């Protein structure tokens, strides 16, 4: 199923793990959501309240992750493809049993010819190309694990694609 949007400024997040890794969404992330045309969440919301809060700012597209329950699974699929300004964006959490998270994300869209793959699960933020596909993991705004900073992503789609990871030190 392909859904079409025309939005330009996209906030990308994943692995919010609320409650658990955080009590609430960090103010740094919410400030970015104030100017978002679209918010993409790549799974592991952990609770429906995260979705409810994000959708107050913009349309929310997402997928469920391995810690999400039936409440999240009833709203979000395991993977989906959206169209933004003619660019096909594949969204998947990236969990599984074998291979790396990156490899699982690539394989999820192997037959779909997407321009961008957004995924989470590893909590490791990065932006890189694999052949002609942009791989984008926003990291986590609430669980940095061994990394020095929390993070989320910004994606801007016009004639060109601009992808950026925003790092911050406090999850308050």
Structure description:
Helix content is 15%, strand content 34%. The protein has 4 helices and 11 strands; from the N terminus they run ββαβαβαββαβββββ. Strand 3 (38-41), helix 2 (48-54) and strand 4 (59-62) form a beta-alpha-beta unit. With 172 residues, the chain is α/β, with parallel strands linked by helices. It is globular, with a radius of gyration of 14 Å. The protein has helices at 27-33, 48-54, 70-73, 101-108, and strands at 2-5, 9-13, 38-41, 59-62, 79-84, 87-92, 116-118, 126-130, 133-137, 150-157, 161-168. The chain starts with a strand and ends with a strand.
- Quote the average pLDDT: 93
Radius of gyration: 14 Å
Using DSSP, what is the number of strands? 11
Estimate the helix proportion, in percent: 10-25%
List unreliable stretches of 5+ residues: none
Describe the main β-sheet briefly: 6 strands, mixed
Class per helix and strand makeup: alpha/beta
Strand % is 25-35%
Principal-axes shape call: globular
DSSP summary: helix tally: 4
As an assembly, this protein is single chain
| Strand adjacency order, main sheet | 1-5-6-7-9-8
Span between termini = 36 Å
The string of secondary-structure elements, in order, is EEHEHEHEEHEEEEE
């Amino acid at each position: 199923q392909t859904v079409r949007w025309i939005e330009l400024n996209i906030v990308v997040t994943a692995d919010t793990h609320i409650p658990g890794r955080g009590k609430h969404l960090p103010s740094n992330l919410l400030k970015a959501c104030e100017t978002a045309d679209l918010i993409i969440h790549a799974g592991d919301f952990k609770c429906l309240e995260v979705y409810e809060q994000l959708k107050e700012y913009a349309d929310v597209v997402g997928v469920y992750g391995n810690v999400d329950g039936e409440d999240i699974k009833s709203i979000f699929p395991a993977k989906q493809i959206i169209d933004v300004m003619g660019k096909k964006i594949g969204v998947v959490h990236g969990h599984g049993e074998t291979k790396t998270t990156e490899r699982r994300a690539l394989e999820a869209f192997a037959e779909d010819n997407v321009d961008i793959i957004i995924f989470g699960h590893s909590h490791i933020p990065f932006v890189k190309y694999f052949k002609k596909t942009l791989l984008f993991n926003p990291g986590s705004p609430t669980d940095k694990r061994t990394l020095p900073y929390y993070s989320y992503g910004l994606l801007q789609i016009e004639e060109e694609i601009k992808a950026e990871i925003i790092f911050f030190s406090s999850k308050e």
